[in-house]
# Entry
Amino acid sequence: MELANVLHRVQGQTSPHPRILYLLECAVAGNDLPAPFPWSKAAYNDLSLPELREAIVGCGGSVAACGTKLRNRNLMDVYCHHMNVEAVLLLMELGGADVMNVPDVYGRTPIFTAAASGSRKDANHIGKATQLKLTRILCDANCRVDLIDVDGRNILQHAGLGMDQETQQIKNLLIARGAIPR
# Structure
């Protein structure tokens, strides 16, 4: 009965943590708890697509049920950081749209990560075309581009100051989807 009360309180929160909510629901229903998600492998982009799918299914079948890593980064955020287009498409197929607008502890959603990834030092070998593709995938799924992080920076500021063609395409895409230049 005590778990049911905890579940009720968590369900009443403005935005309850999906993994905690799912685990409480399983416990109250008397169901077996799902396997923990292999975050250490995901954090280093070391899961093949079949392994990623299997891990998500093992956690309850949805991206949200997998929970988050340190800094409240969800799977969509982690794979945008790695600029892994195939994994992001798989996550969208498995309910990734449910977490694409969930901010990390800094107030940044996966679109912030996707738009900024090409400006990382290690991104040159991956290419700005991949960055543009990821940003387009999230925009096409109607992610929010009007958010401001805890430092007061918007998505366009995270996209970088580059004057190259790809950076300008990313910024134009974000503006077309509702990002406000500051």
In short: The domain at 70-176 is CATH 1.25.40.20 (Serine Threonine Protein Phosphatase 5, Tetratricopeptide repeat). The mean pLDDT is 85. Residues 128-140 form the longest helix (13 residues). The CA atoms of residues 147 and 160 lie 16 Å apart.
